[in-house]
Amino acid sequence: MAHLIGAERIRFEVPTKVVLDDLSLGLETGDRIGVVGRNGEGKSTLMRILAGVLEPDGGRVTRRGGITVGVLDQGDSLPDGTVLHAIVGDRPEHEWAGGRRVRDVLSGLLHGIDAETDVAALSGGQRRRTALAALLIGDADVLFLDEPTNHLDIEGVRWLAAHLNARWSSGQGALVTVSHDRWFLDAVCTRMWEVHDREVDAFEGGYAAYVLQRVERDRQARATEDRRQNLLRKELAWLRRGAPARTSKPKFRIEAANELIEDVPPPRDAVRLHSMAVARLGKDVVDLVDAAASYDGRPVVEHVEWRIAPGERTGILGRNGAGKSTLLGLVDGTIPPSSGRVKQGKTVRVRRLTQQLSELDEVAGDRVLDVIGRLRTTYAVGDAELAPGQLLERLGFPSSQLSTRVGELSGGWKRRLQLLLVLLDGPNLLILDEPTNDLDTDMLTAMEDVLDTWPGTLVVVSHDRYLIERVTDQQYAVVGGRLRHLPGGVDEYLRMGDVEAAVVEDAPAAGVSGAERRALEKQLSSLDRRMARLTDEVRADHDALAAHDQADYVGLESIAARIRQREAERDDLELEWLDTAERLESA
């Protein structure tokens, strides 16, 4: 690996606080780094300083001569003209049309956007996708991407992950991305940086590995933040029990995770929550019978057959503009059916968490604690009764925020308050429409924990694959105006013909014989045994090191050298294991 960018003792402050202080870190070729941390801790600031967009107040940033840097910032600035001109500039068509990368980016990001549309006519999401496309067609050595999955649907996120993974050959280029999309972080990143309290902690692996290491770090340090630690252990338990793709790790890693979570129960007690939901709702929630909805005489969804039962937790998937929000309007009664029938149960209380924050405008001048105190004095979470302030704390609000005026809160804090107000209103049918907007990964984890004990019926529309798989038990897709059940979940949705065709376009043909598959499986098994043996040997060496005469420096160094050699060998074997597993999975 070669050094690309280094930060030495950098400091950055704003009028009210020091954001980063005495921070040193580096970026090497081959790095794929995901940046996480609570909103306001300095994730975007750190990335902009490393990219050269922002100058630190102290310290210095060095860059290897000749490297090129590409930046996707939170705000996009596009030139006047058409979408195509904003992406390829003045290059003649015969130059850019022959480039495979350009074709791949245009097909992957411009779905539903006419390339000849004027930039001024684009929506915010379309501008964001256009800016990302303009960046990705280039040949930057280092990419800095701030929330690149915003405004991308599930197909778009998967395309972006595949593009970034194939963009550079092994050990080349570098990527730093700030993202709240945990599936994306797991799919792309090989290291994680957690920004907190003016410093940065580094972790090896993607998001799942970060959760494991962070929990273990807290255990070893005997951390006093019991609630925060329990949330992470609970999330780790779900990661281990979740989709099969997450278990595609060497067995010795899985065994370490199993030891850590062997006493952790499943995230939700499904039977108990269902019985509580039935008690609150009765047998009928919402029935859609051959229901349809139109806009300006054009059918949006039609022939929808869906009986929502008490206690169901359902995720709704679909491309942007497929009709998901229209479907939610049928469910909550805000959109009357143009044909068919929609029947709500008599005891149903529907609340919908929308994508807009304007509903907080009328309380913008009020303090947070006053706003929530008007609704309810207690809130049931599992077997516990929490005061509104306690529920706020569970959702990550520090006590210092309780006296803040609502209008002075950041977007992320407003989103938390918006969710709390919805829950305090006491619905038994909760609809979440893109609930992850403006939320950091810690807040998403806290929200999921609250939903785990919420005894009602839940419908979630989101492009966040991690959230959908985490909080819902079944999934549907809106495709071609119809509602389609997905027994195979998100993976089945992504395998559907039109999506799969878009993803594999221009991909080389792949396939292995039965004998080759068996050989790969045999190789994986052999690698597992060798890594397990090396792990046992390293453990024994550490015991020997602890028991050795501490005055025998020569002997201690000999044992330490043996440990380093075996750990390096194990790391090489793990890389070989991952490469073999990838070949087997794509076979």
Automatic annotation (TrEMBL):
Residues 517-576 form a coiled coil. Residues 5-222, 286-505 form the ABC transporter domain. Keywords: ATP-binding, Coiled coil, Nucleotide-binding. SUPFAM superfamilies: P-loop containing nucleoside triphosphate hydrolases (SSF52540). The keyword Signal does not apply. GO terms for molecular function: ATP binding. PANTHER family: ABC TRANSPORTER ATP-BINDING SUBUNIT, ABC TRANSPORTER DOMAIN-CONTAINING PROTEIN. This is ATP-binding cassette domain-containing protein.
